[in-house]
């Protein structure tokens, strides 16, 4: 199973219905309020995701991933970068300066904080499988693809084939 599908299925199973069900709401709050790695990891659902994604030896990446997913509210087909670059009048949802800051973010708490802030700007909604995969592979290639998406242009073929084909169909 692809990273994007694994991430989306995990979010859908454990966090999606938090508006209607207290268990996912409590789990989301637990992840968002955790301050240490062991608080995040003290849940079988997180450990299961770590095993599914083979992230047992990369705890900062895993913690970033689950805490960002806990901040997400809804899934749609648009990548986060495209939503951040969308224009509302004369300005973009996220300014170019903040977007550059996001691109400079390194894996861990810095990336986590900037992505959570970015999610709030789009009301917690984007393609969550794709976002999870982008966090998983956060690299120069991912950042480059985000630039094209932010400006609403087509992504060059070498970048487009990287982790590009997951879209939720329901």
Polypeptide structure, described:
The chain has 11 helices and 4 strands, in the order αααααβαββααβααα. With 170 residues, the protein is mainly alpha-helical. A two-stranded parallel sheet has the order 1-4. Residues 163-170 have low confidence and may be disordered.
**Radius of gyration, Cα only, in angstroms?**
15 Å
Question: Per DSSP, what share of the residues sits in E-state strands of 2 or more residues?
Answer: under 5%
Please state the overall shape, judged from the principal axes of the Cα atoms. globular
Task: Tell me the structural class.
Answer: mainly alpha
Percent of residues in helices: 55-70%
Beginning-to-end CA distance, first to last residue:
19 Å
Order of helices and strands: HHHHHEHEEHHEHHH
Quantity of strands, as a count: 4
Biggest beta sheet attributes: 2 strands, parallel
Flag low-confidence runs: 163-170
Count up the helices.
Answer: 11
In order across it, which strands form the biggest sheet? 1-4
Would you tell me the overall average pLDDT? Answer: 91
Note the main attributes of this structure.
170 residues; mainly alpha; globular; two-stranded parallel sheet
Q: What would you say about this model in short?
A:
The chain is mainly alpha-helical. The chain contains eleven helices and four strands; from the N terminus they run H-H-H-H-H-E-H-E-E-H-H-E-H-H-H.
List the helices and strands and how they pair.
Layout: H1 3-14, H2 22-33, H3 37-41, H4 44-53, H5 59-71, E1 74-75, H6 80-85, E2 87-88, E3 91-92, H7 96-104, H8 109-121, E4 125-126, H9 128-136, H10 140-150, H11 157-160
Parallel strand pairs: 1-4
Antiparallel strand pairs: 2-3
Helix pairs in contact: 1-4, 1-9, 2-5, 5-8, 5-9
